[in-house]
């Protein structure tokens, strides 16, 4: 009977030991790091500087400033960090116009053209002042058709 009780508590002891080991090893790594919240500062203890990440949504307007509704022949969007030259691409197919967690900086946003259409690229500096109530910075590109 004692053997059965001991063996039934043995997995629990292993679980507690592994949890205690994993959390004690992580405390040094995460002690100065906070969760990522769009448009909020992240304190990184590793390099001791403040980083900020932003969410960006692309909208299209025609040459008269009216919103473009319906489908377009554009093949997707891109963002290029002006300072580093690094390109970023939006999420999956359902979020093809949204860039999540872009590091702070100045970006040129553009679209891959279709056969007879395209969009004028736009350079924007990401700042917390531009974050809308939905947590996104809206970048407007002018859509054109030949």
UniProtKB/TrEMBL annotation:
The keyword Signal applies. Residues 1-20 form the signal peptide. Keywords: Signal. This is Carboxypeptidase regulatory-like domain-containing protein. The lineage of its organism: Bacteria, Pseudomonadati, Bacteroidota, Chitinophagia, Chitinophagales. It comes from Chitinophaga ginsengisegetis.
């Amino acid at each position: 009977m004692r053997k059965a009780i001991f063996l039934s508590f043995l997995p629990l002891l292993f679980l507690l030991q592994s949890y205690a080991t994993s959390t004690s090893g992580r405390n040094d790594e995460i002690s100065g790091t906070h969760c990522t919240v769009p448009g909020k500062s992240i304190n990184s203890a590793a390099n001791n500087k403040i980083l900020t990440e932003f969410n960006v949504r692309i909208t299209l307007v025609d040459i008269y400033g009216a919103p473009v509704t319906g489908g377009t022949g554009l093949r997707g969007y891109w963002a290029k960090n002006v300072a580093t030259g690094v390109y970023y691409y939006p999420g999956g197919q359902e979020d093809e116009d949204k860039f999540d967690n872009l590091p702070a900086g100045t970006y040129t946003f553009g679209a891959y053209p279709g056969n007879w259409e395209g969009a004028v690229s736009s350079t924007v500096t990401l700042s917390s002042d531009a974050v809308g109530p939905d947590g996104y910075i809206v970048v407007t590109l002018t859509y054109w058709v030949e």
